[in-house]
Each structure stands twice: as C-alpha cells, then as structure tokens.
Amino acid sequence: MLELLGIAWSAWKLSAKRLGPVGGTLFAVVAVVGFVFLRDYLKEHYPKLGNAVEKAT
Fold first, then answer.
1. Distance between CA atoms of 55 and 18, rounded to whole angstroms?
2. What is the mean pLDDT of residues 10-39?
C-alpha cells in the first residue's frame, strides 16, 4: 500500500505544476490505477517479469 502512495505522491508532484492541483490529482489516480493493472497483467502473463516488478516496489 505504501508503494502506491509513493507512486501517487510522485505523480502528483510532477504533474501539479503543469496541470494544477485538480489535474495533478487526476493524473496521480490514473498513474496508480495503471500501475496496478500493469502489475497484475505482468504477474498473470509474464510471471518472472511480474516478480521483478513486485521486488522493485
């Protein structure tokens, strides 16, 4: 859970100046959802790569 919070914070900080606070929040939500879907897809279809992503976070 903390890695998702870290991804959300990083995405928000990087995009808030460019898109504003609301746009940054939306971008952070999309980034976290995309990361979760990508992680689950990799675990299901490419187990070695999914494990590598899991260990990296």
1. 31
2. 94
C-alpha distances (whole Å) from 53 to each of 18, 19, 21 are: 28, 28, 29
Count of structural domains, the chain = 1
Please list the alpha-helical segments (H only) found in the chain.
2-45, 47-56
Residue 10, phi then psi, degrees to nearest 5: -65, -45
Q: What is the pTM of this model?
A: 0.82
18 Cβ neighbours under 8 A, 6+ residues apart: 24
Write out the residue range of the structural domain in which residue 11 sits: 2-56
At CA 26, angle to CA 24 and CA 29, rounded to 5?
Answer: 110
